[in-house]
Amino acid sequence: CLRGGFWVGHPARAGDIRLSVSFRGGLIVRVNGAELIRSHMPKGEIKPDTPAADYPKVVYVDDKGLLLDRKFPDKEFEDRYRMRQRHVKDVRVPTSMLRRGLNVLALELHRSPAPVFFFTAKSRRLKRIYTNPQHVKAFAWWSRIGLESVKLIAAPGSGVVPNAGHTGRPKGFQVWNQRIFERVDVTAYCNPFEPLRPIRLCGARNGSYSAQVVVGCDRPIQDLKVEWSRLAGPGGAALPASAAQVRYALPEAARKGAPNYFEGLEEHPPAAVPVMEAGRGAVQPVWVTVRVPADADPGQYNGALTVSAKGRTPVTVPVTLRVVDWRLPEPKEFFTSLGFWQSPESVAMQYGVPMWSERHWELLDRTFRLLGGVGTKVVNVTAIRRTHAGNQHGMIRFLRQADGTLRPDFAAAEKYVNLAVKHLGRVPVVCLYCWDTFDSSGKKHFGHYARKDREILISVLDPATGEMEEAKGPAWGTPQCRRFWKSVVEGMKRLLEKRGMAGSLMLGIAGDFEPTSAALSDLRAASGGLKWVFNSHVVRHTVGPEKKDLTGYIAAAWGGHTHHLDPDFGRGYGWKNPFQRVMTRHFPRYPLSQRLGLEALVTSRIMPKSRADKPDYGLHGIGRVGADFWPVLKDKRGRTSSLAGRYPDTQWGQLGLRHSLLALLAPGRDGAISTVKAEMLRENLQEIEARIYIEKALHDKARRAKLGEDLARRVQALLDQRVRAANRAYAKRDRRAGLSLDVAALSSRLYEAAAEVAKRLGE
User: Fold this and answer.
1) What is the mean pLDDT of residues 589-611?
2) How many other C-beta atoms can be found within 10 angstroms of the C-beta atom of residue 8?
């Protein structure tokens, strides 16, 4: 179902308006709700699942009965391929169907059925290219529903105005609504016939909720200003002014250098919004975020947002916020395990400040504050240099003693951990980065290869000058090596014990390439058998051939499904799995799965469907992805890249950060700033918490009995509805998948369900 609007000044003067459509399947066209024409559809009542007319057999197969491929068409059968397209041409729209003002053209498409031989016959050409029958079938199949083109043509001077097309961006200053999971690019402009609607937010106490409006103009926008009014609530209550935040999305450069969409959310308004050549207009998305206090009164709050600019009439957008009577935990208490990898070196290089200077610490404080907003639970402390993180020197430096021995200096590491604890709370995983995958070829994939240890590369600090010396530690497999690492591990243990995190320390980082028995033995003896952080294509609960060293945190690249089974086939609950296992992969940018589908990372199975007897297998979140690996390196040709995999011997191949998300955050004027991705992630995590709260109540016999079966069935049905919505978005793998869903309604119903469960339980 698709629709578009057009404006008619005087229907009687509209003249001859003609419609042409190319499509597959069947088509029904309506103008202002009245049917204009149907093509390849049966007569009578049409339901959503009513099939269109069949295609003749000749469009599927050649003269020998072999399927005509959609990917490698044969020129001799071009006429048969063209028969897959159906058309209505130059259909006149009677003036009696038009009305003055906005008119709506609606297209309803239906799928044609597929004959059995479509799924059983052999492919004409692919049978010679692919040996796997499933590949042959997949490339031979073609869609029997779709819109190829639509044209509604009116004569010049008829007074008919389109809402899009060759006329391009409307003239003047516009403000329009756009959902937060819809991409805004530099060519965006508003539908001139779509009214500006109120901003409507709904959420639980102690949560943050965002909306966006987009400001556009055919000329540069000067002195843009966006102001909140007081959000007044029930019984004279009001949210404090600090609860509302306005941010301005920054254009982000594409691979070729030209900006094409918006990502970072800057807190300072731009001095001027220029006309972008690509869109021939000025575009500025504005994000409004409300942080609902934990003690806010439930009910509806009303306010307004005023958008103004130099020489432009201010535009007021009403704002309503409905606070549901359920309290979200603090982000540091979220169940979901997020392993965002922070890069101190990237921050220093981005802002041109010395490492570990006062200004550097101020910038890092801002970064950790933002990471605290999503509840990051992993911190890396580098004891070696030239790691995959691209650090020239280790965070733990060494001081050379009079007898030639090396004593670890934890000054920078301790301050770094303090900063993390300040914003993240007690971090469950602190990785002592003391071993790195070594592959001088830079080519890596899990498979058959010999284990090999890299030399222990360290940084020696001269206290008198502050200069760093690049040095090497003792060789693996020697008593000196064990003493060396024992001093490091014991120092880190003391550091963490003071902060109530004695059990957080782990060794790292093993993965596709694992340490040799000598290195594992040294580190086992030095650490007392600490567990390992394991980043790989596979899931392993032990490291090394002897299987004496346990893994404590696994980030598996491509090693698990990130979507649910359909509830009809069973349900999985990651929160029942006691093992810290996360999925590392590229973040979806804007699709619905960013809002709904991420739940799957916590509540999905990663085992095959045949393991339905194992409901506690699941993922805990996302790991080994970048927080701020910004493009700070420049080559001789002016090309930029991140520090991740900076050194050839620790590139990590396709397991590297460059094959994942490099930066959740963006560089702003005064330090790191949040992004569209980060805000989407935060809202999604909040919804995961509501979901898990409900699921735990459903799975506890005493609490479920208190709920009653009627409420239990209702909330389970709601959770299942969300799963199916996420599955549809995941299956399409399309940033626009699911845009027809009312995500705001799904979210509000989830919070309302959590509140109803809490009320029934008296919690």
Assistant:
1) 36
2) 21
